[in-house]
Every structure is written in structure tokens, then in C-alpha cells.
Amino acid sequence: MIGVIDVGGGLRGIYGAGVFDFCLDNNINFDYGIGVSAGSANIASFLGKQKGRNLKFYSEYIFRKEYMSFHNLFRNGSYIDLDYVYS
Predict the structure, then answer these.
(1) Which residue of 6, 34, 55, 57 is surrounded by the most CB atoms within 10 Å?
(2) What is the dihedral of CA 52, 32, 4, 46, to 10 degrees?
(3) Residue 56 pLDDT greater than 90, yes or no
């Protein structure tokens, strides 16, 4: 069995997204996958064969103030609004 683990790491998850897109391009599959945080989103897109989905997320959402801003930090105590991201 061959497995893959992606631990995420916030915006560093873009590296994992690129690796999964490479795997999709080259028909590389895994028997199981484990993802934590951003890594789970990367793996979900990989399993759904949604190439480029996470690249779009990482490159577009980074500029949305609803996603990441000092406004969020002062409003709810977190620089990143995970409710916005995952809802």
C-alpha cells in the first residue's frame, strides 16, 4: 500500500496543492490519504480530481479581506476567518 500525508500549514499548503496537481497530471494514485487542515482540502480536491482548484483558492483568497485581515483579528481574534473559508 502506498499512502500520502499532507499536513497543510496555512498558505504553505500551496506546495502540497502543486504536488497533487502533478500527481493528477501523471496519473499517480494512492491507496489512502491523510490530511490535516489545509492538507485535508488538498487531498479532497485530489480525490475529486479537481486539478487547479486549490491553486485558485490560494492565489485568489489571499487577497480577500473576508479571508485574512486585521479586521478579522480585531473582530473575532483570528487573522484568518476559517468560518468564511469553510462555509
Answers:
(1) 6
(2) 0
(3) no
